[in-house]
Structures are given as C-alpha cells and as structure tokens.
Amino acid sequence: MEKRVSGWLKVAGETLPSKPRFPKKVKFVRWFSMALEEMLEIVDSADENTINACQDLLQQRVEGLVEPVQGKESDLNELMDGAVDVAVVNANLLHFAGLVDQFSNNCEEVISSNWSKFCMSEEEAIEACEAYENGTHPHAKGKKYNADYKQSGNLWIIIDTDNNGKILKSLNYTPPKIEI
C-alpha cells in the first residue's frame, strides 16, 4: 500500500526526499488536516453515545495542546514511532469491528478512487476549477473553492489554493465502492 500511495503522491508532484527528513510545515499541516478529517469521518460512523464520548476525549486532548511549546525541535524518530502507532491503532479498530479480511480489497479500492481525482485533459481541469469556484462541482455542491490546476506528465491536478494545496476531485472522480 505504501508504494502505491507514494506513486500517487509522485504524480501529484510530491517528490520523495533522497534521505529521511522531517516534512516542511505546510506538508505536515496538510497531513494533519487530512488525518483529522478522516479520523472525524470514523467517529461520525458511530452512534450518538460513542460520538459524545469521543467529543469529550477530543476536547480534553485539545486543551492539553494549548500550552505554548517553546524550543521544541522536530524529531524524525518520534514521527516514525507515531506513524507506526497510527497504523497499529487502525489495525486494532479493524480487528475490533471484524473488518480485517476486508481491508486489503477496500484499501485498493480507495487508492484506485484517488487516481480518479486527476484530470485527463487540460479542458477537464479548467472545467473542474470553474465548477469549484462557482460552487457547482458535483462532489462539493454549494461549496466554493479557489482552485487552480497543474500538469503532471499526462495528467492535470486540481489544487485548493486556500487549503495548503489540498488536491481536489476531478469532475470524473469515482468514489470508492467500499464492500463489507
């Protein structure tokens, strides 16, 4: 999975560093935003009582982060430990839900779906940007984005210029078909 995701990121214009290094602030914040968005999607799948318990826990954790952090340096070992822990914790969740056997196929489905975010032509990219700017994009109706595009090889990538360069969906995006 990691190599497929890395390949997708390379097409999206994200170069793989020649040696391990801590990500730049903009990339780290983009990752955090995406990870938080997906975590909230998981929480939103639960019932009301579980969501309330998760909201309480999140509030406690956020309150613990408001203390000023002065002199703290980036730590690549801590990053690796945390990333591995996240993978293990996600595997725990799949185990608790009885979804271990379905993970690989659904993971491939999500990765394939992500490839459909790219546009096949510049014309499609222009149309997608206009749809985002007008709030008429079929996958974001009513939401307006400042969107731009760039070419990568024979594909075009739609970028949210106001959201740390987040990659947006093409007009021909195909959502993943998750099967349980």
Structural class: mainly alpha
Give the termini separation.
19 Å
What fraction of residues sit in β-strands?
5-15%
- Helical percent range? 40-55%
Uncertain runs are none
Helix count, DSSP H or I runs of 4 or more residues: 6
The total beta strand count reads 3
For the biggest β-sheet, the strand order reads 1-2-3
What's the Cα radius of gyration?
Answer: 18 Å
Quick synopsis:
The protein is mainly α and 180 residues long. It contains 6 helices and 3 strands. 53% of the residues lie in helices and 8% in strands.
What does this structure look like?
The structure is a single chain. The protein has 180 residues and is mainly alpha-helical. Helices cover 53% and strands 8% of the residues. The chain has helices at 2-11, 25-44, 48-65, 76-97, 103-115, 122-134; strands spanning 147-152, 155-160, 166-168. Strands 1-2-3 form a three-stranded antiparallel beta sheet, with helices on one face. It is globular and about 45 Å long. The mean pLDDT is 91.
